[in-house]
Amino acid sequence: MVRVKVRVYARLRDELGFRERVFEADTLSELLEMLGVEDVVLAVNSELVETSKASRFRLEEGDVVDVMPPFSGG
After folding, report:
1. CATH number of the domain where residue 21 is located
2. Is the overall model pTM greater than 0.70, yes or no?
3. H or E segment to which residue 3 belongs
4. Tens digit of pLDDT for each residue in 54-63?
């Protein structure tokens, strides 16, 4: 397992109870399972990643993962 920094935004801060925390996981899907979230927007090192690719996305030591609620337009 590798250590990654997870930053959460907007309403997810209240839901998850933190703004920034370090987790240990090998893939994005493992991380999402730990967080207990599903319908989110993900970015790893400021690059958007489709949640459908989370199980195949291998994390690397020191990655920064941003977890955001889905974007809504108007």
Report:
1. 3.10.20.30
2. yes
3. strand 2-8
4. 999 999 999 9
CA pair distance 35, 31, nearest whole angstrom: 6
Mean pLDDT (the chain, rounded): 94
Total domains in the chain come to: 1
Helix (H/G/I), strand (E/B), else coil: 7: strand
Nearest CA to 54 among 37, 30, 24, 25? 30
- Tokens for 64, please give them: 């920064």
Tell me if 74 is assigned to some domain: no
| pLDDT score, position 73 | 63
Q: 27 is in which domain, residue-wise?
A: 2-68
Strand order in the sheet with 47-49: 20-25, 2-8, 64-68, 41-44, 47-49
Q: Are 47 and 36 within 8 A, CB to CB? A: no
